[in-house]
Amino acid sequence: MTAFWFTGILLLLYLFHVIEKLYKIPWLKIEFVFDATWVVMYLIAASLAVSFGPEAYIAAGFFGFCAMVMYSADAVLKSFAIQRGELAQGERVINTQRTTVSSPTY
């Protein structure tokens, strides 16, 4: 249930552009660690569910493996975004001021 609530809260933060306002927080790294952690947890839980035996547990294990694949794909995409130095949401324009001094012509 934790993965559901964390993902839902992140969805709301993205929808209302809160992520864009708090750009100093490394959101992509937080999401990457979250995704990688849940990949391991879903792998363990789905493996245990499938090995238990009854059909209902096998079905639960199948959906656990599906969730694991989706979280692992998201983790891979987050790692690529971190390597490219992308922002989590929006575009931040950095304005630099340059002053040029020209020497006087005589």
From TrEMBL:
PROSITE patterns found in the cross-reference section: MARVEL
Membrane topology: Multi-pass membrane protein
Alphabetical UniProt keywords: Membrane, Transmembrane, Transmembrane helix
Family matches, as InterPro entries: Marvel, MARVEL-CKLF_proteins
GO cellular component: membrane
Stretches that traverse the bilayer: 6-23, 32-50
Every MARVEL domain range: 1-83
Protein location: Membrane
The protein's name in its UniProt record: MARVEL domain-containing protein
